[in-house]
């Protein structure tokens, strides 16, 4: 799979994340058939083209931590009803998207 195809598949998954839910980089990697490539997902998220309206704020790390240096991410998630634990991480038990591969296609 080339880089452009990988990125487009990542963006398709991100576009499908419903409001009020979050997905991890690792989950996205799994969904695009590259389960060991969560860092590549992070790079794809960093490289989202200007003007592409994706809900990137719904992507967090496996512990529910937010993207570093993106102060608006928490407010965007809270506006959708995402809850946080006392340590500042997303409450993954309540807010993680229980997806099915068929929903993404």
The CATH C-level name is: Mainly Alpha
pLDDT < 50 runs, ≥5 residues: none
Briefly note the structural class of the backbone: mainly alpha
CATH superfamily: Winged helix-like DNA-binding domain superfamily/Winged helix DNA-binding domain
Q: According to CATH, what is the topology?
A: Arc Repressor Mutant, subunit A
Task: Please give the largest β-sheet.
Answer: 2 strands, parallel
Task: Summarize the topology.
Blueprint: H1 3-16, E1 23-24, H2 25-31, H3 38-46, E2 59-60, H4 72-79, H5 92-95, H6 101-104
Parallel strand pairs: 1-2
Helix pairs in contact: 2-3
Summarize this structure briefly.
The chain has 105 residues and is mainly alpha-helical. 44% of the residues lie in helices and 4% in strands.
Characterization of the model:
With 105 residues, the chain is mainly alpha-helical. The protein has a single domain, classed as Arc Repressor Mutant, subunit A (Orthogonal Bundle). It is 44% helix and 4% strand. The chain has six helices and two strands. It has helices at residues 3-16, 25-31, 38-46, 72-79, 92-95, 101-104, and strands at residues 23-24, 59-60. The protein has a two-stranded parallel ribbon with strand order 1-2. α2 (25-31) packs across α3. The chain is globular. The protein starts with a helix and ends with a helix. The model has no long low-confidence stretch (mean pLDDT 92). It comes from Bacteroides muris. Pfam families: DNA_binding_1. This is MGMT family protein. Residues 6-82 form the Methylated-DNA-[protein]-cysteine S-methyltransferase DNA binding domain. Keywords: DNA damage, DNA repair, Methyltransferase, Transferase.
